[in-house]
Amino acid sequence: MKPVRPNIGGQAVIEGVMMRGPKFTAIAVRKNDEIIIKKEEYHSLSDKYKFLKLPILRGMLSLVEMLIIGIQALSYSAGIAGDEEEKLSSRDIALALLTAVGFAILLFIIIPTAAVKLIGENMRSPFWLNMIEGLVRILIFLAYIFIISSMKDIRRVFEYHGAEHKAVHCYEHDEKLTPENAAKYTTLHPRCGTSFLMVVMVVSILLFSLLGWPGIIMRILSRILLLPLVAGVSYEFIRLAGRSSSPVVNILSKPGIWLQKLTTREPDELQIEVALEALKSVL
Questions:
Q1: How far apart are CA 257 and CA 273, in angstroms?
Q2: What is the Cα–Cα distance from 24 to 42, expressed in whole angstroms?
Q3: Largest Cα–Cα distance of the chain, in whole Å?
Q4: Order of strands across the sheet that contains 34-41
Q5: What is the pLDDT of residues 93-106, one digit of tens each?
Q6: Four-point Cα dihedral 264, 245, 139, 207, nearest 10
Q7: 250-277 mean pLDDT
């Protein structure tokens, strides 16, 4: 029986790719004609506290850990791609994390739930009010993705995002890790963070609809408090989608896959090479 290969995840960074495996993380950044690689041993909190490997809890933990690793990787790659290496302190990481979370809460919780008061002012059905709020949240999310995808610098990052997916596909199909082999694969992947965010939007609609329609303060607080649960459930679905061939799961995964057409671009061979170097390092 063929052994199960460990899942490898990644993230596009400035002129490079970060890959995360079971034991290591690696960042590969191209600077002129050189690929600079930073590899570090990785210890998840779940290695120490085994109960954090349980379904739902592992998704909550993974989201926090990936946010921290992602911020560090972006900072490092920006320094390498620029003139000098930059290293964030623990305080800097905490501040960046809080800023990102605060912006997400404002954009995807406070604004949508406040907007429903204007859109559905005469509506009394809690179910439909929650549906409208969810629709507003999704529209804001799509508009945000569309706007940033038109920026030149972001398009370059999205090319590396496509390179990351091609490299992972090549690994998962057990092919030799070469740019030629990886290039033939799609830039879309079911375990992508973009798909995860789309699933979060849908799961939040279903979960929040069970809470009725209390006052705006209670709505905002309840949605913030339930965010970890939404993330945990969404993580389990993305995990399932990454290994399932079920037609039902494939159909449910389609919206996230379609959205990746905005967040990935076709990379060139040099960008694929960078992604493969990061992948090889974590293996």
A1: 24
A2: 5
A3: 62
A4: 9-13, 16-20, 24-31, 34-41
A5: 678 778 888 888 89
A6: -140
A7: 94
- Cβ proximity of 208 and 130 under 8 Å: yes
Q: How far is CA 161 from the centre of its chain?
A: 11
**Length of the chain, please?**
283
- If you search the block for the tokens 């039902």, which residue do you land on? 248
- Asked if 264 contacts 165 with a C-beta cutoff of 8 angstroms, the reply is yes
The C-alpha atoms of residue 239 and residue 59 are separated, in whole angstroms, by: 9
Long-range contacts of 233-236 (CB under 8 A, 24+ apart): 233/56, 233/59, 233/203, 233/207, 234/59, 234/196, 234/199, 234/200, 234/203, 235/56, 235/58, 235/59, 235/60, 235/62, 235/63, 235/196, 236/55, 236/56, 236/59
Paired tokens of 114:
């406040």
Q: 78-134: per-residue pLDDT in tens?
A: 888 775 555 566 677 678 778 888 888 898 999 999 888 777 667 778 888 999 999
Q: Please give the Cα distance from 115 to 132 (Å, whole number).
A: 9
| DSSP SS3 for 178 | coil
